[in-house]
Amino acid sequence: MNTVICHARVIAGIVGCTALFLAATTTGAAQAHGRDLARQTLPARDGWAAATTGTTGGAAATRDRVFTVTTWAEFKAALAVEGTAPRIVKVKGTLDADGADCSDFAVPGYDFDRYLADYDPAVWGYDTDLEGEKATPGTQEYLRDQSAAAQAKAIKAAVPANTTIIGVGHGAGIVGGSLQINGVDNVIVRGLTLESPLDCFPQWDPTDGSTGNWNSEYDAAVVHNATHVWLDHNTFTDGDHPDSTLPSHYGRLFQQHDGELDVVRGADHVTASWNVFEDHDKTFMIGNSDSAGATDEGKLRVTLHHNLFRNLVERAPRVRFGQVDAYNNSYVAGDDYGYSFGIGFKSRLHAEKNAFTLPPGVGASAVLHRWSDSPLTAEGNVVNGTETDLIAAYNAANPSAPLASGAGWTPVLRMRVDPAEVVARVVGRGAGADRLR
Ligand code: CA
Ligand code: CA
């Protein structure tokens, strides 16, 4: 039972007396079997986030810095409470970050039907992008950009240093929000179902490809220039809005999703464990540019273990620069499967004892995708129950542009490593927001 108490510093003229609940006691999943999960820290040696100072999040928060929230406004207010002393934010129920519908964010004068008429390729063509329009007040592209800025302000939540965000009870999560873990150290996010934001205002780029593309923003979570981040037992999903429900305009999918998780721009020491990533196209990106070496070289060290990657198209993950350790993950491919591991510029992926379940007609050669000739280590992985050399399978199918074996490093920050043969079962039983116990 929560005791409602005005939080003096926050309440002063900002959010009102009922906006924040100071949790006097905890209930539900955050306090199971006598342990308060909100006060757990990342175990020693549990992946790259355990390196150097380790990851404790808000575990040591004093009682006045433990918040239980039931709305998106309360959530943002709890994150905005001043100071970087440890903080715990308990999420109860589903927080609706994106309002009733997109008209909440549209600025006066923006009219999507007019937008479609103004930039119809039959009128505008494919040779000129819309940057000039964006800079010209009164154009539909200008108004789209203004509307997008309003949405960004509403749905992005900046996560401060030394914070644990944790779901409490069944069905805790966020719909349509974007967690920004940006420029901070020591953050834990656990037990949340994060339904991908829908970009209300995708931008038409006539020059993207030969027939243009709709490009959208907002990942469910972004780790940007942040360190010691532990993402555990979350479910990343497109929920009620998979790409198959999205319309097409100008003959191109009106894409309203970006990624589920991005780890970019100097981010380092990240562990993602026991999460579900499901029903998405471009899922998980580690490093977002080949030209980001100044921030990313020697960084982007990420451990992925016991995650379930289910019914995805690509990027699970796509890696640039980083030493990434992916072990004991379960990959269950659906009809739209593209690839799982994207081997990108200067990446050093170590993929060991993962389990792949591929549908009929999809071979083991599809698991890897070569964006660059970076070497990787792939050992002890199983495909449909059979131990398979993923690099050999790839190279047999792509003899003119093979991948080299040997990432050149050996992961040491690991806890239990399961035999690949049991990974699909163990991960299927244990991964996801509602399995945090
Ligand atoms: Ca909504
Ligand atoms: Ca992104």
Name the features:
single chain, 437 residues, alpha/beta, Pectate Lyase C-like, 19-stranded mixed β-sheet, eight-stranded parallel β-sheet, 9 helices, disordered N terminus, binds calcium ion
Rounded mean pLDDT is: 93
Superfamily at the CATH H level? Single-stranded right-handed beta-helix, Pectin lyase-like
> What structural class do the secondary elements suggest?
alpha/beta
Tell me the radius of gyration. 22 Å
Task: Look at the structure and give the CATH class.
Answer: Mainly Beta
- How much of the residues is beta strand, in percent? 25-35%
And the CATH topology?
A: Pectate Lyase C-like
In helices, the fraction of residues equals: 10-25%
Detail the poorly predicted runs. 1-28
Report how far apart the termini are: 19 Å
Bound small-molecule species: calcium ion
Tally the structural domains: 1
Largest sheet geometry: 19 strands, mixed
Explain what you see.
With 437 residues, the chain is an alpha/beta fold. The chain has a single domain, classed as Pectate Lyase C-like. The chain binds calcium ion (CA) (2 copies). One calcium ion (CA) binds next to loops.
State the gist of this model.
The chain is of the alpha/beta class and 437 residues long.
